[in-house]
Every structure is written in structure tokens, then in C-alpha cells.
Amino acid sequence: MLDTQEIVTEARDGVAVARIRRPEKKNALTVAMYTALAAVLKHAEADPEIRVLVLTGSGDSFTSGNDIVDFLTAPPAGENSPVFQFLTGLHRFEKPLVAAVNGLAVGIGVTLLLHCDMVYVRAGARLQLPFANLGLCPEAGSSVLLPQRIGYPRAAELLLLGEPFSPEQALAWGLINGVGVDAETTLDLALAAARRLAAQPAAAARLTKALLKEPEAARVSEAIAREARHFVELLQSPRARAALEAFAGQRTAGS
Predict the structure, then answer these.
(1) Other CB atoms closer than 10 Å to residue 163's CB: what's the count?
(2) Is residue 165 included in any domain, yes or no?
(3) Strand order, beta sheet including 118-122
(4) Domain count of the chain?
(5) CATH value at residue 237
(6) Contacts of 254 (CB under 8 A, 6+ apart)
(7) What is the C-alpha separation between 171 and 240, in angstroms, rounded?
């Protein structure tokens, strides 16, 4: 597999695990990390020995979202930017995809879960979609996928108010598959599911996933592109930059 300092991968018995490893920054994602994650998806898709991909984090976080300083220094310029290449790769990934959310998940740390086939989250983890709070709009097709999964009223609450929500709440709403008592147990749950998926006939698993996603595939692709355009426009506004800079300051202070 393809490793960098901050994206580490390992594969065994048909299951590849990609770990976001930047715990000192709560696994905040940089442009380089998005490029690496997109490459991991392409490699896992192309390697016939890999049947299932598991995404997880390190330390006390899955990912706290974008690295704000990096994000403001080199903002995404359009649909070909690394962040949107990663999101498109997630949407188009044909093999089973499982997430083990070991801790804090903010922004893209939550929206990427909507593209996973099975998701397990550690008890006590905080999940949050603060896009509107930051003067931004949803991304990753979440404006379509989230109301589809949990209904419009709940999706509106999460996306418009941007308040944190719990793994137990996500489970009750049908957004995730299970809750682990700690990070290790959560990863064990994800790996157990991944091993079962890897034992399935590969062609049947891929076809089943394709059929499950097919009814909304085109709509989600269009939403990802549409959201990307609006996101880039909003990111250029003084209001969004000020909100992001304030958010970065809160992160530095540890809040």
C-alpha cells in the first residue's frame, strides 16, 4: 500500500486499513493528506488482493476536519482540487468501505461516513457538521445523502444548527451501524465486519454495493459538484474567512 507520514496503510487477508495519523493536530486534514487519501482509494480499487478498505484515525480523533491554516493558505480552487478528488473517489469506490471512528469527527470527518457501507463509532466521540456556523455549505454530497438517511428534519437540524451529536444519537437515527465502548473495540467491530465482507465472493459484494447505490448515484455526483462550486465561492467571503480563523483559534486553545 501507499504510506506517507500522516496516512499509514496495512493490508492482511484481503482487508486494507488506512489510518489518519496526525494526532497532535487531531488528525486535521491538509492538502497533502487529501492527495494521499485519494491515492489510497485508487490503489485499493486497483489491487485485486484488497477486497475491503477500512478507514480509521489515531489518538483521540478520527479527523477534526480541515487543517484551517493549510485550508486558508491553499484553498480548494474547484472540482479538481485534492479534497474534491478524494470525495469523488469515495463516491465512486466500488469495493466495500468500512469506517472505525475512534474519536472526534468534524465536518468531512462526518460527511465521508455517508459514503461508507458500514460505520462503527467509539462511545463518547463527538460528531459535528459546523458548515453553516463557519459561513460555508455542506459538501461530499451530504445535502442529498444526509436527509436521505435520517430524514429532512433531522438533517436540517444537524446541518443548519451545526450542534454536536453523539454516537448513540447517530445509531438511533440509522446513520451508523454500531457503537464501541472504546477505540480498540470500535476498530475490532469494523475489522470483524470487514473480514466477513472480504470472505464474500468479490464480484457479488461489488455488484450488491453498486445496486444499493445506483438509484441515487447520479444525483449524488451532481450534488458533490454543485456543493463544491458553492463551497469555493463561500470560502472566498470575508465572513467565512473570519469564522474559520476564529474556529482555528478555538482548536489551538483546545476547545
Answers:
(1) 11
(2) yes
(3) 7-12, 15-20, 52-56, 97-101, 118-122, 178-180
(4) 1
(5) 3.90.226.10
(6) none
(7) 31
